[in-house]
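#lab-general

N.A. 3:47 PM
ok so I finally got the sequence cleaned up, no stray characters, all 244 residues accounted for. can someone with queue access submit it? mine expired

B.Y. 3:52 PM
send it over

N.A. 3:53 PM
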Amino acid sequence: MKTDLDSTREYSQQIAQAIRDEIVAGSLPANGRLPSEGELAARFGVSRPTIRKALKRLAAQNLIRTQRGATGGAFVNQMSFAQAQEHLATTATLLLSMNAIDFETACEARFALERACLPLACTRRTPAQLASLRAQIARQSGQGLSDEGFCASDVAFHRALVDAAGNPVLSWHMAGAVEAMHPLMNMITFTARSRARIVEFHTRLANALEQGQLAQASCALDELAAYTLELGGEIRARRAGGPG
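B.Y. 4:20 PM
back already:
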């Protein structure tokens, strides 16, 4: 059945959107093969180069993959939550950087989202996830850890906290907060913050999660949020004061 296209809009974009809609709807299942270029060209009434351009759009979005050979063609990708998190984190980082979101707004959003994970994390955390939290605390407490290493461990701790909620959809939504907002905030505060205080907050969080104490976990996270905002204010005041 022929699909009509809008002559006022780019054909390859419309074709890519139509195929994407079919993937989302399940008409084209994961790992299933798409119709051939010839079949798609006939369906949409366009040339094969236009179809190839549409398929390149879909491949760039990681929705399909192409294979060569007798059994080749274009296939729907089986996307994982890990892949989706990576794409979301990259998009969030670009969005925050390009739109110059102020520190307070990023801090408010990040901790509000992370706070939503605590009730589930207090009941669902596994021994392996608690061990991940403890491992990052031990790393942060060690001697000789660089600023870059400490920041990376800080992000890894909060990634483990979010994953302790045991909900892959929630973890995916949190990717932008932890993998994008958190590193950008660390870039601003790392010169002023006390590593000992960060370790203290993290230890309290890990202890509360292990014991299933939501009130204590919430209190520790709230105090960490307040401390982060305080650091942001100090950095801003230093910059406003100029050299010396």
